[in-house]
Amino acid sequence: MRRFFGREQNGKIIIENSEYFHLSKVLRMKEGEEVIASINDENDYYCKIASLNKNNCVLAIERVEKCPALPKNNIVLFQMMPKKEYFDSILPKAIELGVSEIYFFTSSRVMIKNFKRERVDSQVSSACKQCERSILPIVHDMITFEQMLGKLKEFECVIFPNEHEKEQHFEPKFVEGKKDIAVVVGNEGGFSEEEAEKIIERGGKSFSLGTRILRCDTAVTASLTLASIFSNN
């Protein structure tokens, strides 16, 4: 069943803007067809299309169920800003793997200093539909490396896949039983040794992802998979 994000109004759900365009013009759905609607809360709303208007679609709610794909824990990704091709890969993978929030940050090895908010919002919505999440994760505005360090103190656990690490591999005990977990990942240029040391000083558990050097989007996928599985997210 198709899923759309909308808003609640007077006991019905309104689908508008790009979601309305996709429903009516791309998929050419008709009145009476069934859909699942999300209004950025913990529920899935099973609906029928009540009416298709010039600028929106009105859905009649038939039943409400709690969304089974909601993350159980608060896993936050801190990602050093990568090149566009990696950015477009990282964002959906992180959402599918259950992050609650994403912070992109600058550092000494970052060339790109911003991203297009409208495009990111579209990617977030699309990824949530893919993995059937009803609450949109938050992608924050860009922050600096120092601001990122300051936020790490808010978490029970900070895991840090570190290309400089030679001894320590990931251990499940890093995240087992933890509810607030930060994952800090570098971009294609990696962290300087000084930056890596600062993350460790702030409590980051440095670990190796193996002898092969991974692309940053692969490192994100591997690290978030470990965090999600072993924290029972």
Secondary-structure blueprint:
Blueprint: E1 3-5, E2 7-9, E3 12-16, H1 17-26, E4 34-38, E5 43-52, E6 56-66, E7 74-80, H2 84-96, E8 101-105, H3 117-131, E9 138-139, H4 145-151, E10 157-161, E11 180-185, H5 193-201, E12 204-207, H6 216-230
Parallel strand pairs: 1-4, 7-8, 7-11, 8-9, 10-11, 10-12
Antiparallel strand pairs: 2-3, 3-6, 4-5, 5-6
Verbal overview:
A hairpin with a 3-residue loop joins strand 5 and strand 6. The chain has helices spanning 17-26, 84-96, 117-131, 145-151, 193-201, 216-230; strands at 3-5, 7-9, 12-16, 34-38, 43-52, 56-66, 74-80, 101-105, 138-139, 157-161, 180-185, 204-207. Helix 2 (84-96) packs parallel to helix 3 and helix 2 runs parallel beside helix 6. A 6-stranded mixed β-sheet has the order 1-4-5-6-3-2. It has a 6-stranded parallel β-sheet with strand order 9-8-7-11-10-12, with helices on both faces. The protein has 2 domains: 3-66, Ribosomal Protein L25, Chain P (Beta Barrel), CATH 2.40.240.20; 74-230, SPOUT methyltransferase, trefoil knot domain (Alpha/beta knot, 3-Layer(aba) Sandwich), CATH 3.40.1280. The chain has 233 residues and is an alpha/beta fold. It is built from 6 helices and 12 strands.
